[in-house]
Specification:
It comes from Rhodococcus opacus RKJ300 = JCM 13270. InterPro entries: Zincin_1 (IPR010428), Zincin_1_sf (IPR038555). This is Metallopeptidase family protein. Pfam families: Zincin_1. It is a single chain. The chain has a single domain, classed as Zincin-like, CATH 3.30.2010. It is built from five helices and three strands, in the order ααβββααα. It is globular, with a radius of gyration of 14 Å. Helix content is 44%, strand content 14%. The chain starts with 5 loop residues before the first helix and ends with a helix. The longest helix is centred in the last third of the chain and has 19 residues. It has 113 residues and is an alpha+beta fold. A three-stranded mixed β-sheet has the order 1-3-2.
Length: 113
């Protein structure tokens, strides 16, 4: 386990989001990405909560933003170096953004995320 300071971890999440292809960022809609500094639910490194873009209809309006939560302590617990944390943060961010786009766990795992 490695301990990464809160601000540095948040910066890793921002960098992971910034590393997404520009086209994806432009079509992400009504989603907030947050960092939770505890371990979160058992076994989860990140969590997407909301209505995926593929399920939104013309009736989708006036709702709270979807939420992607990245769990700092859960990620730090499985990593042994800063480099591993950076890579795991990126993998987790991409995985949860994939859910925002309607990609299920099975397909994300097939794609290596």
């Amino acid at each position: 386990m490695i301990d990464v300071e809160r601000e540095r971890f948040e910066d890793m999440v921002i960098r992971a989001l910034d590393s997404l292809p520009a086209g994806l960022g432009r079509v992400m809609a009504n989603v907030a990405v947050t960092v939770q500094h505890d371990a979160g639910p058992a076994g989860l490194l990140g969590l997407y909560q909301g209505v995926p873009l593929t399920n939104r209809t013309t009736r989708y309006a006036g709702v709270l933003p979807d939420r992607i939560t990245i769990y700092r302590l859960a990620i730090c617990a499985i990593c042994r170096s800063d480099a591993e944390v950076v890579e795991q943060v990126r993998r987790t961010v991409v995985h949860e953004v994939g859910h925002h786009f309607g990609i299920d766990d099975a397909r994300l795992h097939e794609l290596g995320w």
